[in-house]
Amino acid sequence: RHTQRYVFSLISGCGIFFIGGVVSVYHGIQGVVVGHVVEHFSVGLAVLALSFLIEGYSLRVAYAEISEEAHRLNKQVREYVLSGGDPMNVAVLFEDSAAVLGA
Questions:
Q1: How far apart, in Å, are the Cα atoms of 70 and each of 11, 79, 80?
Q2: Closest CA to 88 of 19, 15, 4
Q3: Known InterPro entries for this protein (predicted)?
Q4: CA separation (Å) from 44 to 10, 24, 67, 72?
Q5: Are 86 and 46 found together in one domain?
Q6: CA distances (Å), 86 to each of 42, 61, 76, in order?
Q7: How far apart are CA 12 and CA 9, in angstroms?
Q8: Co-location of 57 and 18 in the same domain
Q9: Is pLDDT at 103 greater than 60 in this prediction?
Q10: At what angle do helices 87-101 and 41-72 cross, to 10 degrees?
């Protein structure tokens, strides 16, 4: 039962990575082939800023959760993450970190 958490975290992470990659490549090819003038640039920046704020908040909550759990186990956050702490929390932390960094 405990190993299911690791398997589902891996499947989820791989699925998100694969779908994101495929969609990015599709939009990149479509942009090169079709090409168009960018309109409403300010709307895109507003959406980007809102996404950064929301993902930043989620990252802060995930880090606080992991930090609290690591403190409870008398570990540093890095040590907790590398030692295989709760895979769900670690997956959320990495996903949100990637989202905030724009990866």
A1: 25, 8, 6
A2: 4
A3: Cation_efflux_TM, Cation_efflux_TMD_sf, SLC30A9
A4: 32, 16, 34, 42
A5: yes
A6: 40, 15, 14
A7: 5
A8: no
A9: no
A10: 150
Show the CA angle centred on residue 8, arms to residues 5 and 13, nearest 5°: 120
Does 30 have pLDDT greater than 60? yes
Give the tokens for residue 89.
Answer: 């929390």
SS3 state at 19: helix
For residue 67, is pLDDT > 90?
yes
Supply the range of the domain harboring residue 5. Answer: 1-36
Q: What is the DSSP letter of 86?
A: -
pLDDT of residue 1: 62
Tell whether the model's pLDDT for residue 60 goes beyond 90.
yes
CB atoms within 10 A of CB 91: 19
